[in-house]
């Protein structure tokens, strides 16, 4: 009887592991119908190493020292986030945002964790090689699911800083809370320890999708110098609820990065 129970438990565990491996990308990435016309929003297509073509939106700012390389959240695209990006430009940054493959005007097959890594890397190469932005002037910024590719890039490539908004310690642990499988998607907690640049963590304390405990653990694991902004907000209303404190946090972070550049 005990042997049968053990076999049953192991079978269920293996089945769940296989299911998670096969379908998790489709659960993590839920691209909406494109919210914009690529002929009207000034997007530029950037090719990845595996042939995908990514829609990018570059908002230059001649007065800015730093460019935010922005990775958006799950059920949104460049059309949805364009007004927020303009606010960040007015706050003193240049901005380079992109749609993952399968989102907006981007092509190249369905999105996924590994594909998102390649997409982020392609936009970083575009920024440094084609736009001529030095790595020490790039601030990688990931919101929600965008925290995955953003933290991974910042852990691997030279950057000026990293911003994580409404991020998770890992994708599976948003659901399981504790590690249950020998593999995971977007291991942010592990990757953020490898970052060698200042970090800003922003999170809503009432986040109903990714609990604030994820943000607090990321902040604790991040290297110094680091800053945080904890907002009386949920998952999708952080900027609105934070009000002036939101852009102030970015300006203060930019000031910190400027001081480090001068030292």
- Enumerate how many helices there are, as a single number: 9
Instruction: Assess the beta-strand content as a share of residues.
Output: 15-25%
Task: Output the structural class.
Answer: alpha/beta
How big is the Rg?
19 Å
The 3D shape can be described as globular
Strand order of the largest sheet: 1-2-4-3-5-6-7-8
Describe the protein.
The protein has 263 residues and is of the alpha/beta class. The protein contains nine helices and eight strands. An eight-stranded mixed sheet has the order 1-2-4-3-5-6-7-8, sandwiched between helices. Helix 3 crosses helix 4 (147-156). The N and C termini lie far apart (69 Å).
Question: What features would you highlight for this structure?
Answer:
263 residues, alpha/beta, 9 helices
Please outline what is shown here.
This protein has about 260 residues and is α/β, with parallel strands linked by helices. The chain is built from nine helices and eight strands.
């Amino acid at each position: 009887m005990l042997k049968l129970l053990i076999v049953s438990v192991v079978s269920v565990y293996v089945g769940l592991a296989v299911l998670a491996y096969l379908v998790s990308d489709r659960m993590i990435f839920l691209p909406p119908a494109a919210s914009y016309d690529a002929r009207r929003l000034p997007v530029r297509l950037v090719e990845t190493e595996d042939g995908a073509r990514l829609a990018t939106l570059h908002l230059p700012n001649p007065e800015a020292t730093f460019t935010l390389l922005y990775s958006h959240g799950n059920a949104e695209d460049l059309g949805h986030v364009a007004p927020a990006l303009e606010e960040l430009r007015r706050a003193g940054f240049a901005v380079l945002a992109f749609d993952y493959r399968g989102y907006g005007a981007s092509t190249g097959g369905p999105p996924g964790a590994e594909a998102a890594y390649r997409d982020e890397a392609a936009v970083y190469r575009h920024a440094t090689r084609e736009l001529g932005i030095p790595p020490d002037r790039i601030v990688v910024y990931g919101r929600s699911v965008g925290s995955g590719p953003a933290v991974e890039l910042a852990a691997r490539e030279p950057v000026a800083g990293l911003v994580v908004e409404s991020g998770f310690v890992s994708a599976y642990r948003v659901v399981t809370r504790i590690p249950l499988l020998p593999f995971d998607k977007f291991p942010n907690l592990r990757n953020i320890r490898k970052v060698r640049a200042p970090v800003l963590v922003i999170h809503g304390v009432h986040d109903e999708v990714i609990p604030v405990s994820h943000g607090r653990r990321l902040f604790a694991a991040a290297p110094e110098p680091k800053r945080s902004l904890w907002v009386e907000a949920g998952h999708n209303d952080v900027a609105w609820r934070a009000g002036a404190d939101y852009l102030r946090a970015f300006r203060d972070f930019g000031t910190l990065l400027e001081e480090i550049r001068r030292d």
